[in-house]
Amino acid sequence: MKNKLMVSFLALVLVACGSSGSLELTKQEKERVNGDVNVARQLLVQKAILKDASAEKLSEDDQYNLNLAKQEVEVSYYLQKKFESELNNIQVSEEEAQKYYDIHKAEIGNTPFESIKDAIVAQITYEKQTGIVNKYYEDLLNKYKIEEILKKDFPEAAQAVEAPAPAAQAAPAEAKTEEKK
Questions:
Q1: Among 35, 70, 147, 178, which has the highest number of CB atoms less than 10 A from its own CB?
Q2: Cα angle at 111 between 110 and 116, to 5 degrees?
Q3: What is the pTM (predicted TM-score) of this model?
Q4: What pLDDT shows up at residue 156?
């Protein structure tokens, strides 16, 4: 009886004060922290920060930047989930690594293949991963006709992209020549 009275009293206090000051973990969050108090603490601190932040009046620019940051996190998460298996299962053969080494021998110098093989495999893996994501980007550009939208909304910028200045085309070649010297 005494416990029921205490629980009822606490419930009344919470209702009277409003739940604005209280924080709690959802059932799902409690399950996900798996008994780890530090993770639970971190979630509660995040909730406290968000509660404080929600009371702040954001400028239009701040709100735009916050929304943009949320979108970037969502996109990153989606891409990670979409390509997780594919990106993590990239294989690089010994022959691929040796071919890369042979092609880039001038840049690598006299470093023996075996001592940089892991770095070469990592580089090839990165290039393959980038290729997979870039292919997806290209598919999106075509699927949603993004270049057409840009041409319509930014005609002067679209013309500049279509016909790059001759100096801009020559610059990378000159830079590579300078690097080799």
A1: 147
A2: 155
A3: 0.63
A4: 86
